[in-house]
Amino acid sequence: MELYGYPLKAKFNQPRPPPPKVLPATGTMTTSYKNRIPYHPESFSMPWMPDSYYKAAALNPTLSPLTESFPGLPPTKIVPFISERPNGVFSRHSLDDWHRSNMTNYKESETTRHNAERLRADLTRTIKDVYQQAKRTQGESTKNLGERVNDIEYWKSELCIELDAMIRETNSLTDMQKRLERALADTEGPFQVAHKCLLHREKRMGIDLVNDDVEKQLITEIKTIRSCRERLQQCLDTVNCQLMCNKEARQELEKDLADKQMGHHIDSKCYQLKNTSRGIHYYKGVERVDATVSVPETWARFTDNNIFRSQSARATSAKLRASTESLLMGTADEMWRQFSKVNDAFTSRITETANAKSKIQTHLAKTRQEIFQIETKIQVIQKTIRDKEVQLKVAQTRLDERTRRPNVELCRDAAQIRLVQEVNEINETLRNLHQCLRASEDMLQMLVRSKGVLEHDLVVKNNSLFIDQERCMGMRKSYPSTVQILGYV
User: Fold this and answer.
1) N or C: which end of the chain has fewer CB within 10 A?
2) Closest CA to 223 of 180, 194, 263
3) Poorest-confidence range of 197-211, 332-346, 475-489?
4) What is d(CA 22, CA 364) in angstroms, rounded to the nearest whole number?
5) Phi and psi angles of residue 71, each rounded to the nearest 5 degrees, phi first
6) Where does residue 307 rank: exposed (0-12), middle (13-18), buried (19+ CB within 10 A)?
7) Bridge partners (DSSP) listed for residue 50
């Protein structure tokens, strides 16, 4: 409570009338205030009372000449300074003048006392009013400070609740980000496996180098994994952007909360200050300094906007987490279904190749058996031809010897006829046997060629089985499980 420059108005604050001219020029009240200490508003001993004192008047009355005390009197009324009494006795005033002077002084003293009493009553009333006004003003300021502290506490609690919710949401979104990164990294293995399977299958030989269902499913798997990787990467970029938005909203909340805490500390300190508190000082001119940057409406709207921004970011983050979870489940299921299709195609192709290999082995065994029998028959035919040639030699030798019979002994008898028939029959048999031998040898060549084809085809099938069963399926057994794809581990 400060009464700096407070106007003290009272009924007695009127110009003092001049003293009567009939009074003698003795020591008056005017001379007693010549050395009074001036009033300084900066000097205070108490918060409400000025520290100004007045020196007591010097009561040393002096006499002055009448001409100096009463300059307005005509010269005819001036009493001549001539001793008219014996023994040098001289009287300046009459007895009536003396009585009038005393009465005048009495009345002036009574008036002065009356005015002083009125002044004291007015001062008492003014001081009481000042105390009441100061108490009322200070009470209103304290009440406003208390309401301000309550408002700050309310917004502090709202900010703390929203900040805790934002921290939990940010942590959940960070976990989802890590799951996305792990899921994206886990798709690299299946992608490389599918590519290697295609490269390994390019090493198939001959007729097995076909565009079968396995190759089609592998190409589809590569496309599926690439599509899933692109969607996961886009979702990861979106999650990263949302994390930045969450962090910005969190920083705004933390900054606002720190400001609220500092303001709450300052306003609580101001609310608890009293007239008897320590550490209170004068700060001249501080009331003229306006450092405010907001009003209660804009102040509350600022915090409300921060909370609304954080709530919007949290809602977007929660929706993004739900869509990311759905995306992880969808991509994992899609990749797993395609992986199963490729494995089924590999299994079918391996079974088909194994059956073909088994049939080739059966045919190869039969072909080898047939080759063995044909070779045996060829040997029999060759032995038969050799035997028939010896028999032909015998028959032709007999005929040649019988050509040497003399004269009439050259008879065309039954023996001659039979020998000729035997030679012809043996020659016909030899021709037939040679035809059978050539046919057998041709068949043997065909069987040998068929055997080579079967053996080559068997090698091809073995190579295809090794590629599909050992290399491709061996790699695909190490494909990550659905839990790993989803990023739970």
Assistant:
1) C
2) 194
3) 475-489
4) 169
5) -70, -15
6) buried
7) 44
Cα–Cα distance for residue pair 442/279, rounded to 1 Å: 127
How far apart are alpha carbons 60 and 363 in whole angstroms? Answer: 161
Say how far apart CA 251 and CA 344 lie, in whole Å. Answer: 53
Residue 86 near residue 39, CB atoms below 8 Å? no
Pick the residue with more confidence: 473 or 12? 473
**To which residue do tokens 């299994």 refer?**
347
Nearest to 351 by CA among 455, 465, 194, 459: 465
pLDDT-based confidence at residue 485 (cuts at 50, 70, 90):
low
Instruction: Report how far residue 156's alpha carbon sits from residue 295's, in angstroms, rounded to the nearest whole number.
Output: 18
Query: What percentage of residues in the chain have a pLDDT greater than 90?
Result: 59
Burial 235-255 (b: 16+ CB within 10 A, else e): bbeebeebbeebeebbebbee
Q: What is the pLDDT of residues 217-253, one digit of tens each?
A: 999 999 999 999 999 999 999 999 999 999 999 999 9
pLDDT score at 320: 94
Q: What angle do CA 177, 180, 186 make, to 5 degrees?
A: 145
Instruction: Give 262's strand partners.
Output: none
- What does the pLDDT read at residue 7? 45
pLDDT of residue 118: 94
CA distance 317 to 328: 16
Report pLDDT for 31. 42
